[in-house]
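Tokens for chain A. Residues wanted.
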């Protein structure tokens, strides 16, 4: 059942829009405050667009209601409204434990179309925007409302390089092959084509995803990362950024945050850290996260003789993770196919240089002024280059400080939420203008 909740009145944001506010319908299956990843993305776009002055209606899951209500009891926004939608109880077991979440999501999308039509009959939206899930293979049908439709930013077209797949266990290679097959099917999926045909704009997180679109729509894909940071004027850069001496002389404190699954590349990070450890035995590697590969990774750390220099931290709240970043010197994130990289941007906002592979979203976020990107080749060569990057940062504290400043500047400026929302705001008015032009021709 779907139910509509209006948020109570509050002071409107003072920034001038320059044009009349829009009535926006946002499809955000994942939308939850104080969360990272997809739920946090849905929440950020919903609240920030509403704070800009637009009237934003969000269709999301019933299970998000309690967290949303709690957040808004302290900070209501007058122009933000939620419609909560769930499938019947007999279908909800599919999303438990992620065993059937994609089937549940597909059916949820079908149901959301009828809910959106009812809302549109009452509100008359100017723009419809699908924001989560942000996977290009999973189409949205909301373009059928007949108003300008924004699809994305979406990812999912990223692939683990074949040269690195050979080192993965067979079951993980099977997972990658299944992902390849799903992406191949997407090129001929009739439902996806219907959704793309009705889209005014197709926003892709990475170039790899843009190239994965059906050929007829590839040229319409625009690159747009969906994540952002919030600069805190009261925040002072950590001492190891501005101080004359490194925070941990003669060693590096390295951090990883993410799920412990094969695509995150920790099987590359651990031997790379082992190379650093040979020269700088005082270094430490903290791994924050949990996942199905944890046991294998612990065994690998023991085999490499570095287990005693690794701190394993399981699940933490988003606030706790954010408080953790400033205690470290480098963020190591050799993911094989991340579409964006929330943790990368968070680390940069706290002044951590990033070492990552030149793949997917992290490669789009990190530039030569904020970190070191490594070309993905054969496993041994990739590990060697990752280890050499860590050694370079350990030996050259001035370079580390330079990249730390660059990381914080890039995150706080180019990827600030204000800039990201302003870009989207401009896009909304562009599609509105295109519609008006066509009507007058």
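Reply:
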């Amino acid at each position: 059942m779907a139910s509509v909740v209006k948020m109570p009145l509050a002071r409107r944001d003072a920034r001038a829009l320059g044009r009349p506010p829009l009535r926006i319908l946002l499809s955000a299956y994942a939308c939850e405050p104080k969360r990272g990843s997809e739920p946090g993305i849905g929440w950020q776009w919903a609240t920030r667009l509403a704070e800009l002055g637009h009237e934003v209606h969000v269709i999301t899951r019933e299970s998000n209601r309690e967290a949303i209500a709690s957040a808004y009891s302290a900070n209501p926004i007058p122009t933000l409204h939620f419609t909560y939608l769930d499938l019947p109880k007999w279908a909800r077991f599919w999303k438990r434990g992620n065993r059937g979440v994609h089937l549940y999501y597909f059916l949820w999308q079908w149901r959301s179309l009828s809910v959106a039509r009812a809302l549109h009959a009452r509100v008359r939206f100017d723009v419809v925007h699908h924001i989560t899930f942000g996977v290009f293979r999973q189409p949205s049908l909301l373009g059928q409302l007949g108003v300008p439709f924004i699809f994305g930013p979406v990812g999912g077209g990223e692939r683990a390089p074949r040269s690195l797949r050979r080192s993965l266990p067979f079951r993980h290679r099977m997972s990658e092959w299944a992902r390849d097959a799903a992406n191949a099917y997407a090129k001929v999926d009739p439902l996806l084509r219907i959704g793309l045909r009705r889209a005014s704009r197709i926003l892709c997180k990475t170039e790899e995803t843009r190239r994965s679109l059906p050929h007829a729509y590839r040229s319409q894909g625009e690159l747009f990362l969906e994540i952002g940071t919030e600069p805190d004027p009261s925040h002072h850069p950590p001492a190891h950024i501005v101080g004359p001496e490194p925070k941990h002389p003669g060693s590096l404190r390295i951090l990883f945050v993410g799920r412990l699954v094969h695509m995150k590349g920790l099987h590359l990070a651990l031997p790379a850290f082992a190379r650093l450890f040979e020269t700088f035995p005082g270094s430490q590697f903290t791994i924050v996260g949990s996942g199905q590969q944890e046991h294998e990774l612990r065994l690998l750390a023991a085999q490499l003789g570095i287990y005693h220099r690794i701190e394993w931290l399981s699940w933490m709240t988003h606030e706790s993770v954010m408080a953790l970043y400033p205690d470290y010197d480098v963020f190591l994130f050799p993911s094989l196919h991340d579409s964006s990289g929330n943790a990368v941007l968070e680390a940069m906002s706290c002044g951590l240089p990033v070492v990552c592979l030149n793949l997917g979203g992290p490669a789009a976020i990190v530039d030569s002024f904020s970190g070191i990107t490594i070309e993905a080749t054969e496993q041994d060569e990739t590990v060697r280059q990752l280890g050499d990057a860590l050694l370079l940062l350990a030996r050259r504290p001035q370079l580390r400080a330079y990249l730390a400043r660059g990381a914080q500047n890039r995150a706080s400026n180019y990827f600030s939420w204000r800039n990201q929302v302003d870009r989207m705001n401009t896009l909304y008015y562009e599609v509105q203008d295109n519609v008006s032009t066509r009507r007058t021709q």
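The radius of gyration is 22 Å. Residues 413 and 433 are 28 Å apart (CA to CA).
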